[in-house]
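Researcher: Please predict.
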Amino acid sequence: MQDTRPRFRTLEPDTANGLYQTLLESTLAIPFRIDWASKKYSYIGPQIEPLLGWSPDSWHTVQDWADRIHPDERAQTVDRCVELCIAGVDHEAEYRALTKDNGFVWVREVVHVLCDEHGETSALIGFTFDITEQKKAEQLHEELEQQKLSNARLQERLNLTHDLHDGLGGT
């Protein structure tokens, strides 16, 4: 169900910045910006709340981000992202994100690393996408492939049993 309530806007849509913000906040992608020096969010789109249940105001630092990654993926995701950010390399990450009601949804983050004139990382900007349905489809596909393999093995055994039966004088 889509939320049809009017949302508060800090910029008017008819200004250049307002148009940009309106476009960003009307997509399914969740935009974000993180100041690298302070490791604090300077912006996260309001779309984060319908997806995860966490209000934009609850995203203060990258620790909030790390704490909301599934424990099985947390260390690897954080370590890889930090390493690539330090190196100034754009990257993507897929992981399960914690919802406020203690569930999880799959997300993909696309991160662009901004660097200063000395080549040092200054900020991260990017988008977070809900890929839960894609992951469910991948899992279903994998289960169907496993079932096909299992069925093929069973058919092979039935054929072998039939051949053995016929070879022993069965009809």
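Model: The beta strands are 30-35, 40-44, 91-98, 104-115, 121-130.
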